[in-house]
Amino acid sequence: LAFGKFAGRAGLIDFLHGLGQRYLSLGYSTPFLSLGQSHMYPSLAAAKAAVIAIGEEIATFGLPSGICPIVFVFTGTGNVSQGAQEIFKLLPHSFVDAGKLPELSAARSLSQHPQSSKRVFQLYGCVVSSRDMVTPKDPTRCFNKADYYAHPEHYKPVFHERIAPYASAIVNCMYWERRFPRLLSIDQLQQLMKNGCPLVGISDITCDIGGSIEFVNKSTSIERPFFRYDPCTNSCHDDMEGNGVICLAVDILPTEFSKEASQHFGDILSKFVARLASAKELLELPSHLRKACIAHAGRLTSLYEYIPRMRKTIIELPPAPTNLLPDKKYNSLVSLSGHLFDKFLINEALDIIETAGGSFHLIRCDVGQSIDDMSYSELEVGADDTATLDKIIDSLTSLANAHGDPNARREIELSLKIGKVNECGTDDSMAKEGSKVLILGAGRVCRPAAEFLASYSNIFSSSAYDHDIDQIHVIVASLYQKDAEETIDGIRNATAAQLDVADIKNLSNLVSQVEVVVSLLPASFHAAIARVCIEMKKHLVTASYVDESMSKLEQSAEGAGVTILCEMGLDPGIDHMMSMKMIDEAHSRKGKIKSFTSF
């Protein structure tokens, strides 16, 4: 009962899609560039047809000699690997044994000779297993699979020596545990890159974060499936340009073929339904089915009782972020970090709060992406009196300190902030004034801008524990109040305002309340808005071209210390941003800009 083959299929299609973009950034146009991601096709059959089409293009026109031979290395032989190979086999290809990889490398040297323009009309695949990845530490012994699984400490990794130096792409499909040697470490990749390894990317379909491939240290989303890892600086980047390798690490790949995957899963699951439906008690079920049961007899099972308690606080969230626990006189902000869910510590924490007669409101929750990652939750805990609140805090502290044993491994860290609620139900000690941005105009461009700004602290937090970043409160102002209200519907940190920008008094009042103004109005309004911003010493961003009336305000803006950033829309904003990106990259490499021409 698994989705492995669907993960393999989607993972390779998505990787081919990214490979086209990566090769383009390196200066090579390839047929991969025309392939979409798996979820862009209405069915698995349609996606396969698209792969076949680019395969025909490769067979007809070939691939640039500068990147050939392109070698795909598949780790493992299970369902995931089978699914990935199924897609790979739709392209013109040849499979080679691991021992033949050095010969392909020699062919690469010839194909990349300065005088060579020969194109290559196929890809190469190599399927490797554990015997290709490790070797006994004792040179007198031979590899034995059973012995390796029983005593992995007796073996050392050799994948980085025997396989990786010849791979263009590594498709990681194998099961791995921490007791086994890593497939590829950060140090090994750094050395490979220094030696001129042709590796372009990793498709980590198994998505073991920080696992067999050490530098795949975060998961990615279907919307943004890749990150670029630069081994020289040991850093991750969200673009496709620059040094390093691209990494795909999506942990929900089968959902890209939701119809076929659901049908497959349902057909197999139906074989278990009768036993599940007829069981009167959970104890009648085998262990694997019992632990998989989220609900039984109309109730959540014990392992999942925390879910409605946490959801309840979100459902009851009031429109404004203040007075979250109006029925409690005293409250404190409690931050919990640790193995909250895999060790069920969140259950214990909520039990402590409720058993003592307190209540809580979930403010934030970030779940760790691997078994080693810690999760983070931020709760506002309330009580009717300080004695009860103190008792709750003491109990949570005991949980955090592993019941008072300083030598015990701390599974959860607890930081507390206590404040007294005044009669109005607000906690002055907890109030934290964030930045405010005024968006003028409520057209179609406004909604995504408001959503992005309102989620600023979530987007730019470097980790789940970087929770001191201010949230941005967005004010959307429009000539018609209704338009502004519809625009911010569902955005928590946003409010609507009615404003006629011709009314300078009201415009000045709104501008005075914020740090930055974003004008999404027609260009003819910008000069008047800019003059108000200069007077109020507030920064301004516009999406329109600079006209003469705006240019005349340059000295006034400089004198007031105000930044007016114009032309930040799609056109010509993209041109400006891409140009500055190239200029900054050149400067970072100690280069000099001798000329710049924009077409």
Automatic annotation (TrEMBL):
Chain ranges of the Alanine dehydrogenase/pyridine nucleotide transhydrogenase NAD(H)-binding domain: 50-249
Keywords assigned: NAD, Oxidoreductase
Any single GO BP term: lysine metabolic process
Superkingdom as given in the UniProt entry: Eukaryota
GO MF term list: oxidoreductase activity
PANTHER family on file: ALPHA-AMINOADIPIC SEMIALDEHYDE SYNTHASE, MITOCHONDRIAL, SACCHAROPINE DEHYDROGENASE
Name listed for the protein in its UniProt record: Os02g0783700 protein
Lineage: Eukaryota, Viridiplantae, Streptophyta, Embryophyta, Tracheophyta
